[in-house]
Design brief:
This protein is α/β, with parallel strands linked by helices and 252 residues long. The protein has 8 helices and 8 strands; from the N terminus they run αβββαβαβααβαβααβ.
């Protein structure tokens, strides 16, 4: 918490003295910090600053993720290794596709911690935002906690609807959250079904492959739990191309 406050005070002061984007001293150029209170914790988030005229950057709603999301650049991707090249090829194909006239599957990328899954997805999200699409990029475990708190706050439907209708939805680290049958069936299941029927691409990163995820999202081996997990997995399979990021980046 102390580090969060110090970072905020330092960057907020720099923003107050700033004379324009060309003289921005922050790593998140064009974005200014603000403090939020969520789930008993004070967190630092970033929003478009008063000098940022690049409205396309504002197309990304980055929820509960580090500020490096704004810096991810597709031109900086490490493409050494067959799996990294394969993922990049699909991303470039996705960027060239006309999504307003035809559906193209999103991506499900699994791999070890530190393999660069989030950076790959963040660079794609930034490119799509620059093409004037609306993006929600969220760290899934924190999203789950936020949704749980929304049940008592009364704005659950509003938040779920945003996930359903946004042009492109990125769910980072699915399977890493505290297990919840309600979230799985009533929230994730509902969001995925709506996006599947509405031809809206969805992207996932996970430490688990899709097959492995099936066991992670059920709390027992009963027939009912197997069916519930199967429904989620089948939706993910129908709406994404699966990739396993086997090659670690060279800088790790």
């Amino acid at each position: 918490a102390a580090h969060t406050f110090l970072t905020y005070l330092e960057e907020h002061e720099q923003c107050n003295q700033c004379e324009g984007l060309s003289k921005c001293k922050l790593n998140t150029i064009g974005f200014t910090p603000h403090l939020i209170y969520r789930n008993g914790l004070i967190k630092l988030e970033y929003e478009v600053c008063r000098f940022n005229q690049n409205i396309k950057k504002a197309n990304i709603s980055a929820l509960y993720i580090p500020k490096k999301i704004f810096e991810a650049n597709i031109e900086d991707l490490d493409l050494i290794g067959e799996s990294r090249k394969t993922i990049h090829q699909y991303m470039m194909k996705f960027l060239k596709h006309d999504h307003r006239t035809g559906f193209m599957k999103g991506m499900y990328i699994s791999g070890k911690y530190g393999s660069g899954k989030t950076y790959f997805m963040a660079s794609l999200a930034n490119e799509l935002a620059n093409m004037d699409y609306k993006i929600i990029f969220t760290y899934y475990p924190d999203l789950v906690r936020e949704i749980k708190s929304s049940i008592s706050e009364g704005d659950l439907e509003e938040k779920i609807n945003k996930l359903k209708v946004v042009d492109f939805l990125f769910l980072d680290d699915i399977g890493g959250e505290y297990y919840s049958k309600f979230i799985r069936d009533e929230v994730l299941g509902s969001v995925l079904q709506h996006r599947l029927l509405d031809n809206k691409a969805t992207f996932f990163t996970s430490n688990y492959t899709v097959t492995e995820l099936a066991n992670v999202i059920k709390d027992s081996n009963t027939q009912q739990e197997a069916v519930s997990a199967y429904r989620i997995i089948e939706r993910i399979k129908r709406m994404t191309e699966e990739f396993v990021l086997k090659d670690m980046p060279r800088n790790t």
